[in-house]
Amino acid sequence: MSKQPLKLALTGEALLDSARYNKGTAFTEKERAAFGLRGRLPFAVNTLEQQVERAYAQYKDHDVAIRQNAFLQSLKAQNWTLFYALITRHLEEMFPVIYTPTEADAIANYSHLFRRSEGLFLSPPSVDNMEKDFLDACDGRVLDLIVVSDAEAILGIGDQGSGGIGISSAKAVIYTLAAGVDPAKALAVTLDVGTNNEKLLKDDLYIGYRERRLHGRPYDDFVDKFVGLVRKHQSKALLHFEDFGVSNAQRLLQRHRDTHPIFNDDIQGTGAVTLAALQAAISVTSSKLQDQRIVVFGAGSAGLGIARQLRDAMRVATGLSKEDAAKRFWLIDKYGLIKESLGDKIRDDLDSEFIRREDDWGTDENQLAEVVKRVKPTVLIGTSTQPGSFTEGIIKEMAKHVERPIIFPLSNPTRLHEVQPKDANAWTNGKALIATGSPFHPVDIPGKSKKYVIAECNNALIYPGLGLGTILSRSKKMTDKMIIAGAQKLAELAPALKDPDDALLTPFGDAAKVNFEVALAVIDQAVEEGVADADVPKTDRRKWAEAQLWKPEYVEYEYSAQGL
Predict the structure, then answer these.
(1) Is residue 553 assigned to a domain?
(2) Which carries the bigger pLDDT value, residue 450 or residue 8?
(3) Residues that bind (S)-malate, according to the entry (predicted)?
(4) Per the annotation, does 403 bind a ligand?
(5) 3-class DSSP assignment, residue 211
(6) DSSP string of 114-129?
(7) How far is it, in rounded angstroms, from Cα 474 to Cα 142?
C-alpha cells in the first residue's frame, strides 16, 4: 500500500464499476466502510496475490485461446490492476492470447464478440463533431499515449473496419505491461473510415461504418484533422500509428513525424528490432554494418521499413550518404528485383536510391535464386509471406560464400515463414545466425550436444521502450537517432554476445527489463539532440525514470467529496 492515500469521491456501485479504481475483494474493511461497500462485497478481504491465483485458475478453465482472450477482456473491463498483475506474472504464456495470433481472431469477429465499448471511434459522418468527441474521450486527462489504427492492414488478416479498436487497445496494453505506461493516460482510437472487406459489408451484425473506405484527399483530410486535434489538445502525448495500409503508412509517417512525437510500429518498430538482431549478429561475426550485403525478399511496409532503418543506421554509424548506404541493399518484390525496368510497377513510396540501375544489373537475373547467386549476401531477410521461398538451394548457395550467414525469415504467422529454422540450421551445418518473426523451439546444432536458440524478432521487445523514452523525455519528436540508440541498447543485451549459439535477442519474458534499458538509451539520445522538453536530471536518470513507471499494485483509498 502507498503511504499517501489516494483521495476518491466515487462510492458504492460507481466505484465497483470503475475498472480503474475497483479492487473487488481487496478493498479493506476501512475502505468498505468509507465508500459504502460493506454489504456489496463478500466478507473476506483478499490480497492481490490471492486474486491473481483465483483469476489464473479461471483463465485456465478456458481451453480455447479465443475464450481465454474473452476472459481477459472481461477482467480488464472490471479491474485494471488485477488484469495487469495477472498477465505480468504469466506474460510469456498469455502474450499470444492478448496479441498475435489470438487477438487477430478476436478482431476478425469483433462485431459478433462485442460486449462493451472501449476507446474512441471516429467516422466520416461525424467529422464535424470530431473535436468534441475527442475531448469527451480524453475527459480532462493529460495523456501520455494515443494508439490509432485505420484497420486497413491488421495482423496479416487485412481490412477489419471498426474492429481496428482491438489492435489499438492491445498495443496500449503492451505499453503498460512492457514499459509501465499508466493505462489511465493511454487512449485507443480507431479511424473507422469504412471498409473494403466484403464479408463485413454483408454482415448484418457489423457495427462499423458500412461504406467503402475513404481514399485520396478526403482520407488525408480526415487523418490530418485527427492529428491536428492531438497536437492541439494532447501536445505531449506519443501518437502511435498501427496497421495502416501499405499505401498510407509511410506517407503519413513522413507527413506528420516532424510536427509531433509520432511512431509507426509496422515501419519503425519492425525496422528497429531487426536492426537490433542484426547488430547482435554482426557482433558475433566480428564484422561491420556497412560491410553487409543485404537482400530483402518482400518489399512491402515491413520490408521497406527494415531496409530504411538499416540504411539510416549505416548513415549514422559511418557518415555514408543515403545513396551509398542504399547500395548495400537488394530489394525483391513480386515482380522480382526492384530495378529501373519495372517502371510503373515500382510502388510510389519506394525510395529511389533502392532502385537498381539496369546497366549495372542486366535483364535476366531477377528472381531470388539468381540475386543470391550474384550478390552473395551476408544477410537474407524475408518479409514476403511466401512460405518455403528460402529453399535449400538458396540457403546453401548463400552459405558457400559466408562463414556465418545471417538469415531472418520474419513473415508471420509461423506457416508463412520463408524457411523453417531447423532447415536453415541444417543446410548451413549449424552456422546460420537466425531470427524469426514468430516463436520457435531451439533446434539441434549438427555435431554439438547443445541446441541453437532462435531469436524472435518481436517488436514488443523495443517499441514500448522507444515510446517510454519519448514520453518520459517529453520529446518534441521521435528522431531516427533515438530509434537507433534504442536498437543498439537492445543489441547489447543479446545473449549471443556471451554465447554465439544463444539467441540474438533477449527472451520475451524479459520484455519489461529490456524495454526499460531501451527507454534510458532513448532519453539520453533525446537530451543529446536537444529535443527533450522534460526536466531530465543529469545524474541518476535510472532512479528518476523508475519513479514514473506505473505498476499493477493496489493503493490505499481515502474518501474525499472533491475527489482527486
Answers:
(1) no
(2) 8
(3) 412, 458
(4) no
(5) coil
(6) --S--SEEE-GGGGGG
(7) 13
* Strand ranges, E, within 320-478: 329-333, 336-337, 379-382, 406-409, 433-436, 443-444, 451-452, 455-456
How many alpha carbons fall within 13 Å on the CB side of residue 433? 29
Quick one: average pLDDT of 374-393? 95
Would you call 557 a catalytic residue per the annotation?
A: no
Q: Are 485 and 532 in contact (CB under 8 A)?
A: no
What angle in degrees, to the nearest 10, is found between the helix axes of 80-89 and 91-98?
120
Cell 542484426 identifies what position? 278
Q: What is the pLDDT of residue 363?
A: 57
Prediction pTM value: 0.93
Q: What's the domain count of the chain?
A: 3
**359 marked ligand binding residue:** no
Taking phi over 0 as left and psi of -120 to 50 as alpha, with beta for the rest, 320 belongs to beta
Residues of the chain above pLDDT 90, percent: 83
CATH number of the domain bearing residue 17 = 1.20.1370.30
Angle, helices 463-473 vs 165-179, to 10°: value is 70
Query: Going edge to edge, which strands form the sheet with 329-333?
Result: 336-337, 329-333, 294-297, 379-382, 406-409, 433-436, 455-456
Q: Which domain holds residue 409?
A: 268-533
Catalytic residue among 21, 99, 110, 206: 99
Per-residue model confidence (pLDDT) at position 564 = 66
**Mode of pairing for the β-strands spanning 120-122 and 186-191:** parallel
Q: Is residue 221 part of a domain?
A: yes
Strand partners for 154: 158
Are 450 and 351 in a shared domain?
A: yes
The vertex-136 CA angle with 131 and 142, nearest 5°, equals 95
**Is 549 within 8 Å of 182 (Cβ atoms)?**
no
- Of 76, 84, 110, 171, catalytic: 171
Q: What is the pLDDT of residue 365?
A: 61
pLDDT at 312 (0 to 100): 92
DSSP string, 254-316: HHHTTTS-EEEIIIIIHHHHHHHHHHHHHHHHT--GGG--EEEE--SHHHHHHHHHHHHHHHH
Burial of 104: CB neighbours in 10 Å, binned 0-12, 13-18, 19+: buried
Q: How far is CA 439 from CA 2, 99, 172, 215, in A?
A: 38, 13, 22, 36
Told to judge if 99 belongs to the known catalytic residues of this protein, a careful annotator would answer yes
Say if residue 446 is in the same domain as residue 511: yes
pLDDT mean over 173-178: 98
Q: Which of 124-128, 129-133, 354-358, 558-562 has the lowest mean pLDDT?
A: 354-358
List, in sequence order, every residue forming a beta bridge with 436; answer none if it has no partner: 456
Task: Flag whether 458 is marked binding.
Answer: yes
**Max Cα-Cα span within the chain:** 83
φ, ψ of residue 444 in degrees (nearest 5): -65, 145
Angle of CA points 384, 387, 392, to nearest 5°: 110
Angle (CA) 246 251 254, round 5°: 135
Gap between the Cα atoms of 412 and 415, Å rounded: 7
Q: What is the CATH number of the domain that holds 207?
A: 3.40.50.10380
